[in-house]
Design a protein that fits this description.
This protein has two domains: 1-404, Spore Coat Polysaccharide Biosynthesis Protein SpsA, Chain A (Alpha-Beta Complex); 410-470, Trefoil (Acidic Fibroblast Growth Factor, subunit A), CATH 2.80.10. The protein is 28% helix and 21% strand. The chain is built from 16 helices and 18 strands.
């Protein structure tokens, strides 16, 4: 099978297609071909304005605009390297697709499902497994069951209160049920593109011990526009709060990449994971001892590199993802009872980071958080004869300039000598507040080259004020 060449833009070849009102309107409806839905609030009545606001508050994106877009909307030309058209994909096995879902917007979930069904050859689709993570919304219950009963190859797995309410558990339950040994895990607010699945399956067939991902394009939360701009290649990495962080590749590494072939990367986002199920579970799968979400990308990043695998981006495969404008599930992420019981990042650090784990413990809670029982995770590392964490750092620093907070002049809180208030970091403008002694945004380094920094944000004096900006 040869990869299709989608270099001609349907929008350019059909002059009647527009995303405007009135005589220039198109025949297909709003948002077609990934175009933005731009709502003028003066056209909306009080009840619609209320729905518009409620959708943002509930989902972190414009649900009102999403509801106006067809579940079967088409996506225009994707900006892939011309060399992708020359790639040959043969002897491919079907993949199982796992989609965890919790109280998702109805229209955006349907668009996720139909984009997969309409853009994936049926012989390459084993099944789609929706894993309902104990949703509370009515439309995620009988209505969803009825709808998917009309779709081929789509099934639903429902988790109860005891098993559910954790993204890692929901994903792993779906993975365990998957019939294929090639598994793709994606979010429930995703749109795949033509030719997306063949490069992914091919790479896992060639490298079953690799964790790979497509290029993830942005679907804007405000307008649901699919961003076709060719993204500037950046690496998904981490800091020593174990938060994900986008960092530019070194130029010499960029020069070595062929943009029509898979290339090594430092880490991947959690919104698209592609792997061989047997090898994935040999490395312990996802850590189902984690709570809610967070930290799972770092664990996957570390163990795939340390335990005989690697991580790659497959640039000839593209999917779109809605990046929410606000944090959802924040009531659980900030639930003191849940999060004081155990810290995901502590679990990752304790199992995988060797002597570097103390950098995480210092910054996150100042040793006050808990790991829970990680004995089974440590056994997985021993059984797979995994390399030391230093191997991860050595590999990553071949590709990016990673800030590793060692050989510091000083570290800790910056405390005003008279007010006893602490300098905190949140956004561009630092501020002072009551000292809590638990690190987080009040933990600063004085680096060996005398930068005052909170991970990759440095204190600078510009425009007659102190602010933070990305460290150089």
């Amino acid at each position: 099978m040869q990869h299709k060449n989608y270099t001609k833009n349907y929008l350019e070849r059909n002059e009647f297609v527009r995303s405007k009102k009135g005589e220039n309107a198109n025949y297909f409806g709003p948002g077609e071909f990934g175009q933005p839905v731009k709502l003028d609030k003066v056209d909306l009545g009080p009840s619609d304005l209320k729905r518009l606001k409620a959708g943002f508050e509930k989902h972190g994106f414009n649900e009102f605009a999403s509801d106006l877009i067809s579940s079967h909307r088409r996506i225009g030309t994707i900006n892939v390297d011309p060399g992708c058209a020359n790639n040959i994909y043969d002897n491919l096995s079907p993949a199982s697709i796992v989609i965890p879902v919790r109280d998702e917007s109805w229209s955006i979930l349907l668009r996720t499902l139909h984009s997969i069904l309409s853009r994936t050859p049926l012989n390459l689709l084993q099944e789609i497994i929706l894993v309902d993570d104990n949703s509370k919304m009515d439309n995620m219950k009988g209505r969803l069951d009825w709808y998917i009963s009309h779709l081929q190859k789509v099934k639903i797995l429902r988790l109860d209160e005891k098993r559910g309410r954790s993204l890692m558990v929901a994903r792993q339950e779906g993975i365990n049920k998957a019939l294929s040994d090639i598994v793709i895990v994606i979010d429930s607010h995703t749109e795949v593109t033509e030719g997306w699945i063949e490069p992914l399956i091919q790479r896992i067939r060639e490298k079953p011990n690799f964790l790979v991902a497509p290029i993830v394009d942005q679907i804007f939360a405000e307008t649901l526009e699919y961003d076709y701009k060719k993204p500037k290649p950046r690496a998904m990495s981490f800091d020593f709060h174990l938060e994900q962080d986008w960092i530019s590749y070194k130029q010499e590494y960029l020069n070595s990449i062929s943009w029509s072939k898979p290339y090594r990367t430092t880490g991947i986002q959690g919104n698209a994971l592609v792997f061989n199920k047997t090898f994935f579970n040999k490395l312990g799968g996802l850590d189902t001892g984690m709570k809610v979400w967070g930290g799972e990308q770092q664990e996957l990043m570390f163990k795939y590199v340390m335990c005989g695998g690697d991580i790659e981006i497959v640039p000839c495969s593209h999917i779109g993802h809605v990046y929410r404008q606000k944090l959802i599930w924040s009531n659980e992420l900030h639930n003191k009872t849940i999060m004081d019981e155990m810290c995901n990042q502590y679990r990752v650090a304790e199992v995988w980071m060797d002597e570097y784990k103390h950098l995480v413990f210092n910054r996150l809670g100042n040793y006050t958080r808990k790991t829970g029982d990680v004995s089974s995770r440590k056994r997985i590392r021993e059984e797979n004869k995994c390399k030391p964490f230093q191997y991860v750092l050595d590999r990553i620093t071949q590709m990016i300039d990673l800030y590793i907070p060692v050989n510091l002049q000083a570290s800790g809180a910056i405390v005003h000598s008279e007010t006893k208030l602490c300098l905190s970091y949140w956004g561009e403008d630092p501020f002072v507040g009551k000292c809590h002694g638990h690190g987080y945004s009040q933990f600063w380094d004085l680096s060996k080259d005398f930068q005052i920094r909170c991970e990759n944000q440095c204190l600078v004096y510009e425009d007659n004020k102190i602010k933070t900006k990305r460290c150089e």
